[in-house]
Write a structure and sequence with these properties.
The complex is a heterodimer of chains A (440) and B (432).
Chain A: H1 14-18, H2 21-39, H3 43-51, H4 73-78, E1 94-98, E2 106-110, H5 112-128, E3 136-139, H6 147-159, E4 162-164, H7 171-181, E5 185-188, H8 190-203, E6 212-216, H9 222-232, E7 235-242, E8 247-253, E9 260-262, E10 267-272, E11 286-292, E12 303-309, E13 324-325, E14 330-331, E15 336-338, E16 341-343, H10 345-353, E17 358-369, E18 372-381, H11 390-408, E19 413-417, E20 432-434
Parallel strand pairs in A: 3-4, 3-5, 5-6, 6-7, 17-20, 18-19
Antiparallel strand pairs in A: 1-2, 7-8, 8-9, 9-13, 10-11, 11-12, 12-14, 15-16, 17-18
Chain B: H1 5-8, H2 12-33, H3 35-43, H4 65-70, E1 84-90, E2 98-103, H5 104-120, E3 128-131, H6 139-150, E4 154-156, H7 163-172, E5 177-180, H8 182-194, H9 199-202, E6 207-211, H10 217-227, E7 230-237, E8 242-246, E9 254-255, E10 261-266, E11 280-286, E12 297-303, E13 305-306, E14 318-319, E15 324-325, E16 330-332, E17 335-337, H11 339-347, E18 352-363, E19 366-375, H12 384-402, E20 407-411, E21 426-428
Parallel strand pairs in B: 3-4, 3-5, 5-6, 6-7, 18-21, 19-20
Antiparallel strand pairs in B: 1-2, 7-8, 9-14, 10-11, 11-12, 12-15, 13-14, 16-17, 18-19
Classes of the chains: A alpha/beta (440), B alpha/beta (432).
């Protein structure tokens, strides 16, 4: 295993980070072939390739990847829990879960090699933004099943940074620790960073040691970046990833802050027209489709991320690394990001309609209060399941909120309303009203 | 099954020679590089050269929790900032929290200690281990996570909370072991039953690694009988690095790796060592800790130790189940009462459920002890006379065990508070 060495460095893995042109293509092809062979161990992919009359040997050039049908979030649901594993459970060292499209989460497995690859990718990112041994890194995202916490934790540890695994919550305490431990870098969602800066200002707390902010898991704007840099005294970098691709570590900005470097040796990227599936060229906006090239436990082929972005023109950057993607411009589906957690309206529907107390309609409202996302759900009651007593009303409210929290992993504010009082839709229901606007 | 059979079954004399060598190195290092220890040793009139045998450890001064608090956050550290790779913080119930720093070697030692421990509980790479201790600044989650990962098990880092989801994952992912507090496991078992899931029949769960709060042998029996698992006690505190040591499959004391820690049990009043098998306060010296050295640390936990070789073949000293804390000992009308004695008594009564509360108060200058007891559903009857009989019997049992009178209140099944983290069963209103 690669060991950390003291002091600042330009690259974590210079060869891989700067690989371009024919050399990169050759490596990608070799790894693509291996990935297709690995995926073929999974019944879902055996069927998929069979139906497309493809054998692993038919992948002869990188362009041949376009022959493989897409995999979507919904396909993963069918494989719950272990259907997408290409290795025996004994070789799986870690399990993370991420939001599914209904009540059950998506399960992601990792081999020992996967965990090492993942930590290495994060180490590349953190090195790219100027961190090295001697830096103190406070990781203010959820640990546990969410990949953001343990993902960054392992990468930072691999580099020999001092890790403060503070997780979320208790903002005053977080600020105290930044001061007490001389924290130089933080990782959190941009909205939490904004909240932290407000609390710090209100407390009159000084956090002069802070110089780097790694922000991700939700979309944010250039205006937010300028504001965060001013308020926290950091250089702010956008981080991108998704649990299906290990987690964070897929792409991140370098010092140029003009697009994110995606690790092409580990992820084969295509941009497609979400409606037609047609491949788009550099500079054209579309949905990002990723084929991971080094995943062992859970290989995926042409996975539709749902994220809208584009490959930027040119295959280089003044930092020496390869082709970048633009910052995420939106979603091709209806996925919501609430406090850094991905939520599908279908999950909400699934939970609500499995409860007898819930009537026919519901509405979801998203607001930003004190820089933090709040989700309010108005639910029509089912008359038959309701006694009319106030106490009963409260009980139903708690029951719904608890069920939603179990599945979504976030707290929601549930309001019960009279049957028939919510809007009815003739065509496609628009049950989500996002009133948050651009962050800050 | 051993993680490192050579070390774990080392002859006692050899182990003690190793301990002496490590202790001597530690004392020299601290005398030279730690302002705090240098001063403490000078105040105690002891020089590293005075440590000539392992028994000479008694010449070294004790260290207390307040020493950590007084030196907040990092004045006791003997590693440079660059050498630190982790901080953990234990939330103090009063005042400033305790900060623990780790070097790379500290994390490695911690992980190895747990790898040995989990292996001694019969866990290995085929197991799927659900870590339901809190992740983040609390040492329970990340500690067990690293240990479970080291033995090659599949780790599900569920952390705390979301109990129904935890039960679903336990079933769906075929978890074979869970690490959590005993009170959380009780809560989980109850929620599972409400969901129509029997942990005994509907899951592959076979081992529980339970700790972070004191619990009794009777509680173990109940958990094992109810859930159909083997429940093992785990011990450690954040100052020592975190959870570190467990029982082996013999369930007869917690193995304290001698190459890792030097264990003493002392009389809490005099500080003198007590004989093996006698109860006293646990004192630990962590022999290889780099960032935050711990020498003769008065943990405050009450236990006894044995140096007899365990039936499993491991030669390292064992401590018995923690029966209480020096500072949670309640003095009621001059009599020492440990909450664990109350639990021990209650759990021996078949009608009594898993949950209880202890309330101590002072009325008319007299201490009062109230024990609220939740009954099992099958013991909870409509007949007042039946309930009165049970109440009287519980009161008598408590009085004979504690030698002090306890008022008893019976509570409906499910009515007392449940805990996701550490249980808070004692309320001492006299202090308020």
């Amino acid at each position: 295993m690669q060991r950390h060495t003291k002091g600042y460095r330009m690259f974590w893995d210079e060869r891989m980070e700067t690989l371009k042109g024919k050399e990169l293509a050759a490596l990608q092809l070799k790894r693509l072939k291996r990935t297709v062979a690995q995926a073929a161990k999974v019944p879902f992919y055996r069927d998929l390739l069979g139906k497309a009359s493809l054998a692993p040997g038919d992948i002869r050039t990188l362009a041949d990847v376009a022959k493989i049908p897409f995999t979507g979030k919904k396909d993963l649901r069918g494989g719950y829990p272990f259907g997408f594993l290409a290795v025996p459970l004994k070789e799986v060292r870690r399990i993370h879960t991420t939001s599914g499209t209904t009540g059950k989460p998506t399960v992601v497995g990792y081999t020992k090699k996967d965990l090492a690859n993942w930590a290495g990718l994060i180490a590349r990112n953190l090195t790219m933004v100027g961190l090295a041994e001697g830096d103190v890194f406070q990781n203010m995202v959820n640990y546990g099943l969410f990949t953001g916490g343990l993902g960054f934790h392992y990468g930072a540890e691999l580099m020999g940074l001092t890790v403060v695994p503070s997780a979320t919550g208790n903002t005053k305490r977080q600020i105290e620790m930044i001061g007490d431990f001389g924290v130089t870098a933080i990782h959190c969602t941009p909205s939490y960073a904004m909240h932290l800066s407000e609390v710090a200002a209100a407390e009159g707390a000084r956090i002069p040691t802070l110089r780097v902010g790694c922000f991700g898991a939700e979309p944010w704007s250039e205006a937010t970046r300028a504001e965060l840099e001013r308020r926290l005294g950091v250089s702010a970098f956008d981080s991108y990833g998704l649990s299906e691709m290990y987690g964070p570590g897929v792409a991140m900005e370098c010092g140029e802050k003009d697009g994110l470097h995606l690790w092409h040796d580990s992820y084969l990227v295509e941009i497609i027209d979400p409606a037609t599936g047609e491949t788009l060229g550099a500079g054209e906006k579309g949905e990002m489709v990723i084929t991971p090239l080094v995943k062992e436990a859970m290989p995926l082929l042409r996975y539709r991320t749902g994220d809208i972005t584009m490959l930027m023109d040119g295959d280089g950057c003044s930092c020496g690394r390869g082709q970048k993607i633009s910052r995420i411009l939106g979603r091709s589906d209806d996925m919501l990001v609430v406090r850094g957690i991905n939520v599908f309206p279908s999950q909400i529907e699934h939970v609500l309609f499995s409860l007898p107390e819930v009537g026919e309609q519901f509405m979801v409202y998203l607001d930003r209060i004190h820089q933090l996302d709040e989700m309010t759900i108005e639910v029509e009651m089912n008359r038959q399941a309701f006694s009319g007593e106030l106490r009963d009303l409260h009980r139903v409210q708690v029951k719904i909120a608890t069920a939603l929290q179990e599945t979504l992993g976030i707290r929601t504010d549930v309001k019960l309303v009279e049957p028939g009082s919510l809007p009815r839709f003739e065509g496609k229901a628009k049950r989500v009203v996002d009133r948050r606007g651009v962050l800050f | 099954m051993f993680w490192d059979s050579k070390i774990e079954t080392m002859e006692r004399e050899e182990l003690e020679r190793l301990q002496y060598r490590l202790l001597k190195t530690l004392v020299y290092r601290l005398y030279s590089f730690s302002a705090f220890y240098h001063r403490r040793m000078e105040e105690a009139g002891v020089h590293p050269d005075d440590v000539k045998t392992l028994a000479d450890v008694v010449k070294l001064p004790f260290m207390f929790k307040r020493d950590l608090r007084d030196n907040y956050p990092d004045k006791l550290f003997t590693a440079t900032k660059e050498e630190l790779v982790r901080y953990h913080v234990s939330s103090g119930t009063t005042g400033k929290p305790t900060v623990v720093g780790y070097t790379e070697n500290d994390l490695e030692e911690w992980t190895v200690s747990l790898a040995r421990a989990l292996t001694s509980c019969g866990l290995g790479e085929k197991d799927v281990i659900q870590v339901s201790y809190g992740y983040g600044l609390f040492t329970g989650g990340l500690g067990l996570h690293y240990g479970a990962e080291r033995i090659g098990a599949t780790v599900i880092p569920t952390s705390v909370g979301g109990t129904e989801r935890q039960i679903e994952l336990m079933q769906d992912l075929g978890a074979t072991a869970i690490c959590c507090t005993p009170s959380y496991l009780l809560h989980l078992g109850e929620v599972a039953e409400k969901m129509g899931v029997s942990i005994r029949k509907d899951t592959k769960m076979r081992v529980g690694i339970l700790g972070a709060e004191p619990w009794t042998a009777e509680m173990r029996n109940r958990i094992q009988d109810w859930l159909g698992i083997k429940a093992y006690d785990i011990y450690g505190t954040s100052e020592l690095s975190g959870p570190l040591f467990t029982e082996c499959t013999e369930q007869n004391g917690i193995h304290i790796w001698g190459d890792f820690a030097l264990t003493e049990v002392v009389d809490p009043k005099t500080g003198e060592q007590v004989a093996d098998g006698e109860k006293g306060e646990l004192v630990m010296t962590i022999l290889k800790k780099e960032a935050l050295p711990i020498v003769r640390y008065r943990i405050g936990d009450i236990t006894s130790m044995t140096r007899e070789v365990c039936a499993c073949g491991r030669t390292h000293p064992r401590i018995m189940r923690i029966t209480g804390r020096v500072d949670d000992m309640l003095i009621i009308r001059g009599i020492n009462v440990f909450p664990s004695m109350i639990e021990h008594t209650l759990m021996g009564i078949p009608e009594v459920g898993q949950h209880f509360q202890i309330v101590v108060d002072r009325k008319h200058e007299l201490d009062t002890l109230l024990v609220r007891v939740e009954l099992k559903p099958e013991a909870f009857s409509d007949k007042i006379t039946e309930l009165m009989k049970i109440k009287e019997m519980v009161g008598k049992r408590l009085e004979s065990a504690l030698t002090v009178h306890a008022d008893v209140e019976l509570a409906e099944p499910g009515s007392l508070p449940r805990f996701e983290g550490k249980a808070k069963r004692v309320t001492d209103r006299r202090k308020m």
